[in-house]
Amino acid sequence: MLHETGKIIDITVVNGEKTAVVECISKSACKSCANNDSCGIGVVAKGLSDKAHQLSMPYKEGMIINESIELLIENKDIVKSSMIVYVIPLLLFVFGSTSSYLFIDNEPIVITISLISLAIGVFIAKAISSRLYPSNSLNTLISTK
Asked: How many CA atoms lie within 13 A of 7 on its CB side?
């Protein structure tokens, strides 16, 4: 299960239902490594600012503004969404590049067909993920502790 800590920054009423606006700060993993002073990637990560993400959660009794809460996402949902986002475009890219390489001798055309196959895979993955996880259902996937 994925754990993330967020801070409630606002409580609003949307369509007659209370929602809590939660802000999560994503930090680079390179900032916490013991070798980040001597690693080139760690030095670059120090120069980049942390990103803040805001999402709306269903209000639960006892939520207070400026209170920290823990957000939880099930492993099965992480694996399922990762498979959709990574595997579908990758498979289409490999299929497009392999099949075009077998039938076409012109390398720039093979590269173009491979990239078009990758783009089609991205659009298919986006369509599948929007059907499986509509934006209003994301609130049910993320629970609070």
From this structure: 5
- Same domain for 95 and 144, yes or no, is yes
Are 2 and 69 part of one and the same domain? yes
How is the beta sheet containing 142-144 ordered, strand by strand? Answer: 51-58, 17-26, 2-14, 68-73, 142-144
| Mean pLDDT taken over the chain | 81
Is there a single domain that holds both residue 69 and residue 105?
Answer: no
In sequence order, what are the beta bridge partners of 77? none
What domain range includes position 117?
Answer: 75-145
- Alpha-carbon radius of gyration of the chain: 21
17-26 and 2-14 beta bridge pairing: antiparallel
pLDDT of residue 5: 80
Structural domain total, the chain: 2
Q: Residue 103: pLDDT band by 50, 70, 90 thresholds? A: very high
